[in-house]
Amino acid sequence: MQGVAISHAEKLPLDTLAAGLRGCWPVFEPALLGALARIKAGRYEADENTPATVATCHASVRHVLAMSKEHGIDLGLPEALDRVFQRASDAGRDQDDLAAVYMALR
After folding, report:
1. DSSP conformation class of 42
2. By CB neighbour count within 10 A (0-12 exposed, 13-18 middle, 19+ buried), where does 12 fall?
3. 38-42, 49-53, 63-67, 88-92 — which is least confidently predicted?
4. Among 28, 42, 57, 67, which residue has the fewest nearby CB atoms (within 10 Å)?
5. Number of structural domains, the chain?
6. 36-50 average pLDDT score
7. Which domain holds residue 22?
């Protein structure tokens, strides 16, 4: 819903947002399912199967946060995500697989 609010503020048609989301799903689905498998195994370091690191995903969160600030959109969700990703970063997990963010939630 944050993306919808940003899209409206940027005057981006929601059909364009939907197309972008559909295009990202082939990356998101294996990343999320892979994260579940990594969490189950307790294996958080990046390897050749890592689609995105904590640092890469944190950069995306920060971009959403900046765009939300720019447009006066509620910051609750992106600030919460930023805090969790920052905790993972502070723990030295920037170059680990996205699954390592789980450790910051514990």
Report:
1. T
2. middle
3. 49-53
4. 42
5. 1
6. 96
7. 2-105
Of 13-17, 30-34, 90-94, 99-103, the least confident: 30-34
- The H-or-E segment that residue 35 falls in is helix 14-41
Quick check: 27 pLDDT over 90?
A: no
Q: Which of 86, 92, 3, 97 is nearest to 42 (CA)?
A: 97
Give, in order, the Cα–Cα distances in Å from 10 to each of 13, 24, 33: 9, 20, 31
SS3 percent helix, strand, coil of the chain, rounded to 5, is: 75, 0, 25
* CATH code of residue 24: 1.10.1040.10
Whether 66 shows a pLDDT value over 90: the answer reads yes
